[in-house]
Design goal:
Layout lengths: L1 H27 L15 H145 L1
């Protein structure tokens, strides 16, 4: 932008210079010898050429600096893109692995839940079956205990009757012995 401005300014100065020279030629007419009030030894064309060279060098330097900056930034951006692409690919791979792990865990969870439901059903059936068997056994135990109680009562009653009969027998035996002695005593007289 600065170079373009300088080039335009240089062209404008040349144009003005030519116009002024043409105007002077028109006023004087014919062969005119133009003398300039410039300091001796000053060559305007050389100075302009030097300025042009200087500006062209500056323009070339600016162009090269801009190009170097552009290539540097492009390379830096390419590196960043490569790094980000690699990171993105790594993240995608990780996400895929995580999704696969989640799916496997969900499948395993469903399997475990099915197994749990099956075991709970089996446990409920077993509890119901053993509950019925236990109720049956408890009924049987109660019946046996009832029978034992009845047997015990019967044995006690029979034992009591036996004791009574034993007492009766003992008394009868004593009475028989007494009668025998009495009979023997009568026989002895």
């Amino acid at each position: 932008m600065q170079i373009e401005g300088l080039k335009e300014e240089l062209a404008y100065l040349k144009k003005n210079h030519e116009e002024e020279m043409n105007a002077l030629r028109g006023q004087v007419g014919g062969d005119v010898s133009v003398e300039m009030d410039a300091a001796p030894g000053v060559d305007l064309s050389r100075i302009l050429n030097e300025m042009r060279d200087q500006y062209e060098k500056m323009a070339e330097k600016n162009r090269k600096d801009a190009e170097d900056w552009f290539f540097s930034k492009t390379e830096e951006l390419n590196r960043e893109v490569a790094t980000n692409t690699e990171a993105l690919q790594s993240s995608r791979t990780e996400i895929t692995e995580l999704r696969r792990s989640v799916q496997n865990l969900e499948i395993e969870l469903q399997s475990q839940l099915s197994m749990k439901a099956s075991l709970e059903n089996s446990l409920a059936e077993t509890e119901a079956r053993y509950g019925a068997q236990l109720a049956q056994l408890q009924g049987l135990i109660s019946s046996i205990e009832q029978q034992l109680c009845e047997l015990r009562c019967d044995m006690e009653r029979q034992n009591h009757e036996y004791q009574i009969l034993l007492d009766v027998k003992t008394r009868l035996e004593q009475e028989i012995a007494t009668y025998r002695r009495l009979l023997e005593g009568e026989d002895a007289q």
